[in-house]
Design a protein that fits this description.
The chain is built from 17 helices and 15 strands. The chain is α/β, with parallel strands linked by helices. It has a seven-stranded mixed β-sheet, with helices on both faces. It has a four-stranded mixed β-sheet with strand order 1-2-3-13. Strands 11-12-15-14 form a four-stranded antiparallel β-sheet, covered by helices on one side. A hairpin with a 2-residue loop joins strand 1 (37-41) and strand 2. Helix 5 runs parallel beside helix 14 (326-341) and helix 16 crosses helix 17. The chain starts with a helix and ends with a helix. The structure holds pyridoxal-5'-phosphate. Pyridoxal-5'-phosphate binds at residues 120-122, 125, 154-156, 161, 226, 230-231, 259, 261-262, 287, 298.
Length: 452
């Protein structure tokens, strides 16, 4: 056994004996042992066996500026030496959090000038749930507390995150809160049936109005949605969907919450997904790309009118020990500086995203591929048995087979059922996109061989 090998096995034993891994079948993981990731640079990871892996998921959608940016480590180190921690409770504050709030307000859509900081996206959505209900209570409409989410939406893993999200597996495991309801998702490939994409988009949007009328406008606090559903399978609504949703939102007195945890900070080629779709949210949840994942941080960007009502309502009894953590805020500020000064988002918009999308679509001719879709630095490949009828291979777990081939061939893609998804670092180069597409084709071939 090589030294490398025995070291890997020692770590795998620690995993088996002591670690309860998130979103994992822990028993199955114990048999196989996790892949141990030890280093990273740019868009690449290295594991403990020395394998180099192209990370087409940017970690968990978060490493926007790529791995190994020393500037982020340096500002963290400097901030830790100067003021490693202080809180924002009880009438104190510190420069990094305040300067970050201003920097975010400058990037956010007009009229959204306040930020509530959290430690994660889930905590951001917990904050959303409490803030919107508190807002309506302050306005003398305490009955407006129902929040409408979408089936298969993802809003995090705390109780509020799980309940706002529309994943039944999470609801079943202690993830339900009263007065949260869900409408169908705009997933044409999976659920469009015989409708055209355009008709299905309108239909899916109309479900929002139906639900508002069913619950009663006077009982609805907010609608929450991701501009593009990420964890649900990179679900990009038909072009007809968001314009129709916008019309419906304008008709009723309810708040709109855009969960920008994935789309925010450049993934669509705009600063926010709502910029891309020209939506006008009242609250936006942020995390992930805010710090490029170098350190945990999330938050909620709040429209001026909502901020005014909440501010005038006295104490909002809500906050986290690590809200606006100074080290996280310093890292976020530097991350935003890098995104801005290096014009990374402009480059995504003008150059790398169009190239990625064009190259990905070349995979549509593969016998296993039913659809390739994508937008900005997001992509999805639907694996099917029959293209025309969009029929899946029954009971084979094709997505998992493909994911394993990817792992074994130096590529990280994620499988959501039989949908392969990617969200590479925003800094991925044209040559690295070529490598990503070539590896993907190879893994599709291997998967096809295994299941045909
Ligand atoms: C990841 C994610 C969250 C949860 O963020 P955490 O930092 O994992 O708590 C919420 N919403 C969306 C859209 C996400 O992708």
């Amino acid at each position: 056994m090589s030294a490398q090998n025995s070291q890997t096995q020692a770590w795998q034993a620690l995993s088996r004996d002591h670690h309860l891994a998130p979103f994992s079948d822990v028993k199955q993981l114990a048999e196989k042992g996790p892949r141990i990731i030890t280093q990273a640079k740019g868009v690449y990871l290295w594991d403990s066996e020395g394998n180099k892996i192209l990370d087409a998921m940017a970690g968990l959608w978060c490493v926007a500026v790529g791995y190994g940016r020393d500037e982020l480590a340096e500002v963290a180190s400097r901030q830790m030496k100067q003021l490693p921690y202080y809180n924002l409770f009880f009438q104190t504050a510190h420069p990094p959090a305040l300067e970050l709030a201003k920097a975010i307000a400058d990037l956010a859509p007009a009229g959204m000038n306040h930020v509530f900081f959290t430690g994660s996206g889930s905590e951001g959505n917990d904050t959303v749930l409490r803030m919107v209900r508190h807002y309506w209570a302050l306005k003398g409409q305490p009955d407006k507390k129902v929040i409408i989410g979408r089936i298969n939406g993802y809003h995090g893993s705390t109780v509020a995150g799980a309940a706002l999200g529309g994943m039944s597996g999470m609801h079943q495991q202690g993830g339900v809160i009263p007065d949260i309801v869900h409408i169908p998702q705009p997933y044409w490939f999976g659920e469009g049936g015989d409708m055209t994409e355009a008709d299905f988009g309108v239909w899916a949007a109309e479900q929002l109005e139906r639900k508002i009328l069913e619950v009663g406008e006077n009982n609805v606090a907010a609608f929450i949605a991701e501009p593009i559903q990420g964890a649900g399978g990179v679900i990009i609504a038909p072009d007809t969907y968001w314009p129709k949703v916008k019309q419906i939102l304008a008709k009723y007195d309810i708040l709109f919450v855009a969960d920008e945890v994935i789309c925010g900070f450049g993934r669509t080629g705009q600063w926010f997904g709502t910029d891309y779709y020209d939506l006008e949210p009242d609250l936006m949840t942020i995390a992930k790309g805010l710090t490029s994942g170098y350190i945990p941080m999330g938050g909620v960007i709040v429209r001026d009118e909502v901020a005014r009502v909440v501010s005038e309502g006295g104490d909002f009894n809500h906050g986290f020990t690590y809200s606006g953590h100074p080290v996280a805020a310093a890292v976020a500020l530097e991350n935003l500086r890098i995104l801005r000064d290096e014009q990374i988002i402009t480059q995504v918009q003008d150059k790398t995203a169009p190239y990625l999308q064009q190259r990905l679509r070349e995979l549509a001719d593969h016998p296993l591929v039913g659809e390739v879709r994508g937008l900005g630095m997001l992509g999805a490949i639907e694996l099917v048995k029959d293209k025309a009828s969009r029929t899946r291979y029954p009971g084979k777990g094709v997505g998992m087979i493909c994911r394993q081939h990817c792992f074994d061939n130096g590529l990280i893609m994620r499988a959501v059922g039989d949908t392969m998804i990617i969200a590479p670092p925003l800094v991925i180069s044209l040559a690295e996109i070529d490598e990503l597409v070539a590896k993907t084709r190879k893994c599709l071939d291997l998967t096809y061989e295994a299941v045909r």
